[in-house]
Amino acid sequence: MDYVALIHTLIDPIVSKPETLLIRELPSEDEKKVTFLVCAQNEDCARLIGKKGCVANALRDILTIAGKLDHKRVGLKFESFEENKEEN
Predict the structure, then answer these.
(1) What is the DSSP string of 11-27?
(2) Dihedral through CA 76, CA 2, CA 23, CA 31, nearest 10?
(3) From CA 27, how far away is CA 63, in angstroms rounded?
(4) What residues have CB less than 8 Å from 76, skipping those under 6 apart?
(5) What is the pLDDT along the chain (88 residues), one digit of tens a residue?
(6) Cβ neighbours of residue 82 under 8 Å, at least 6 residues apart?
(7) How crowded is residue 55: how many other Cβ atoms within 10 Å of its Cβ?
(8) Which residues on neighbouring strands pair with residue 8, listed in sequence order?
(9) pTM of the entire structure?
């Protein structure tokens, strides 16, 4: 299953700048566990997490269900980055 495409399908409508999203698979020693890191701008990262983590938990639930089809545990982590606005 293409988890990156699934994650893009789920989160692109939520964020304001989907072109700045960075989704990477994190290395894992266990082949049955897959973790993805989603990097977004501060505002978009806040939208993806939601109040009390409601949106993040919903996204994780969907990925957990998708992972069960492949007999894998799929995790999702969020990280924010800021654009470098200073120019030298």
Answers:
(1) HTTTSS-GGG-EEEEEP
(2) 60
(3) 17
(4) 7, 35, 36, 38, 56, 59, 60, 63
(5) 899 999 999 999 999 999 999 999 999 999 899 999 999 999 999 999 999 999 999 999 999 999 999 999 999 999 998 754 454 4
(6) 41, 42
(7) 18
(8) none
(9) 0.86
Grouping H, G, I as helix, E, B as strand and the rest as coil, residue 64 is: helix
- Give the Cα separation of 6 and 12 in Å (integer): 10
Please give the Cα distance from 44 to 81 (Å, whole number).
Answer: 10
CA distance 66 to 32: 13
Please report, as a single letter, which amino acid is at residue 27: P
